[in-house]
Amino acid sequence: MLALIKKSLALTLILTLIVTIGNLTTPLLIKYILDHFIQVKSTDTAAFTLWTSLTFATFVVTSLIWYVEQLRFQQTAFTIVKDLRLALFTDLQRKGMRFYDKVPSGSIVSRLTNDTEAITDMFVSVLSTAVSAVFTLIGIYITMFFLNVKLALICLVLLPISIWIIYLYQRYSTAFYQQAREKLSEMNAKLAESISGMPIIQQFSQEKRLQDEFSETNEAYFTASFRNTKLNGLLLGPAIQLLSGIGIAIVLFYFGWASLSTSITVGLVFVFINYIQQLFNPIQQIMERLAFFQQAVVAASRIFKMMDDTEYVPAQVETATQQIKAGQVEFKNVSFSYDGQQDVLSNISFIARPGETVALVGHTGSGKSSIINLMMRFYEFERGDILIDGESIKTYATAELRAKMGLVLQDSFLYYGTIADNIRLKNEAITDAQIRAAAEFVQADRFIETFANGYDHRVVERGAAFSQGQKQLLSFARTIVTNPKILVLDEATASIDTETEQLIQEGLVRIRQGRTTLAIAHRLSTIRDAEQILVLDHGQIVERGTHDELIAQRGIYFSMYELQSKGEAITDR
Asked: Where are the transmembrane segments (predicted)?
């Protein structure tokens, strides 16, 4: 792909050079017609027609080549940005959860859309203009020196002034564009957060506060953008236009003065005025395109800063061929910290054997979800080890871990499509029969078959038309259809009604058979049959045992169970 892009750019540069030569040639042809036919009132109609046709043909050919050149430039630009966008999206798939913990989703979307579009504008508007400008400037000065050395030297003085104006603009506009892009990213982040959290916003009457915050950010974006607009209005058009006028005045004054002592042709005056206009046109275009260039520089820095973030998914031995067969899980003195300073897990050790269920209970912040996060390899740990079938979890290929470990979260996520699509998740190896079997296994078939289209029933965004219990049953079906050796349940029944929970509990009895199950439990009544219950407090295992053993100890678990039992009794009344 890189070789093709280089070839395309090389061809585009050649076409740009041809267009520049054409643009420089036409004034010379017009000069010849003015000096040899119009000024001297020549009657050679055949020669006049020939030169006029040649000039017109040069215009036509130059225009056609210019069209092809612009088309190639834009095609190359879109190809480069398309590959950059794909590379950025691919890199996002490799990022670990630490990255997503610290970067707002709206900011990520802004980089993937707005910032990549800014780079497209740079290629299309800036590079093509800059390359054409360089060729044009060089060609014009070479031709001007060939026609009149003194006047060319006088006009050359205007070039450093133009460069100084460009430098001045670039110096001050960079900071303005940086501020504008940051405010735009912040505005996108607020917008994404507001849309995703609309139910909570309306429930707690937060509309006014969100409107005020968005208005404040929007105003800041307007201020930063308008500061640069004022700079553009001063330095982009007027300053360069003034220089162009000075150049034309110099040409007219020089030829007017020279005409007192020597003969000056109309064609020569026309060529110099035309070249002065051509000289400042690309400079003015560059100045106008600097706005796009500044946006692109800022956008590129934001994109590459995100791509340079090394918070990747924990590394695995991707070439490993070993497979998870039994599914025994062992935590050996595992300690973990999210920020590298304060441990959220301290010396966690336990064994979950095939066919057994190990339940994790504890108050909020005790470390339950952190154990699951490490188990699923969402975060890297540095102290201790997690073993599967006696081998470190780090030595398995990622594909093997994902294939043999099934995760059901408290908040199930459904994609736009059909029910079958959401269970299959684009895995074409899963047949329709397996999908139906998985749904029947978790008893999701009861509500699926009430739809006219059954498994082809459409699922709207995030499954908004389904109840929480129905979405959770589909999540169980999605997990069980892959037949995992290790089942991880992160408070999978915490947000559903009692009737649906009863269905899920009946399904879980069958789901857990022959599998190693790690379950975070919110309702302690759902884990009474667990072979081992681990009670966590401040990142440590403070109690362990079966339900009956922990009740007999009359410790933290006993207090939690008593509190829940009383709460359920009051609810039943």
From this structure: 48-68, 122-145, 151-169, 234-257, 263-280
State whether 292 and 359 are in the same domain.
no
Q: Residues 412, 560: one domain? A: yes
- Per the CB < 8 A criterion, the answer to whether 328 and 353 are in contact is yes
SS3 label, residue 532 = strand
Closest CA to 80 of 113, 124, 110: 124
What's the predicted TM-score (pTM) here? Answer: 0.62
Query: What secondary structure letter does DSSP report for 549?
Result: H
472-517 pLDDT, tens digit per residue, is: 888 888 888 888 899 888 876 665 666 666 666 666 676 777 789 9
Residue 44 is encoded by which pair of tokens?
A: 């050679």
Task: Tell me, yes or no, whether 288 and 226 share the same domain.
Answer: yes
Calculate the alpha carbon distances from 489 to 10, 162, 371, 406, 408 in Å: 57, 67, 12, 8, 5
Residue 477 belongs to domain spanning: 329-572
- Residue 90 structure tokens: 């691919």
How far separated are the first and last CA of the chain, in Å rounded?
70
255: CB partners within 8 A, 6+ apart? 264, 268, 269, 272
pLDDT value for 573: 47
Q: List the beta bridge partners of residue 345.
A: 336
